[in-house]
What does this fold into?
Amino acid sequence: MAGFANTSENAILDFLFSKAAYTPEATYCVGLSTSDPGETGALTGEPSGGSYARIAVTNNATNFPAASGGSKANGVQIAFAEATGTWGTITHFFLADALSEGNVIASGALLSAKSIESGDVFYFDIGDLIITLD
It folds into this structure.
């Protein structure tokens, strides 16, 4: 399950308690990491090379159906390109506001780490990428 980065937490709190304007991203970019981005959103473990690239997912009710029980999950499979090199041992995922660089919106640990080698395809099945507000 994913938790929100500080920038997202601050924006949500300002929206809820100060009525500050907030516009959600039209597209979220799903990425992978060999380390925990944490609340600061540090992307020191994002793979590079080997055909790795973040996946752009339109922010709509098909891709992210209605929340239930304080959590929201993906409504479609999110699949990365086949690895053409080693990506390392993936331990975390994140949602960002850009295909490169940008701000981390939320991140979380995988249920089990996955070593990605050439020829592997990493994907989140429907309902596997879970975001919570707890």
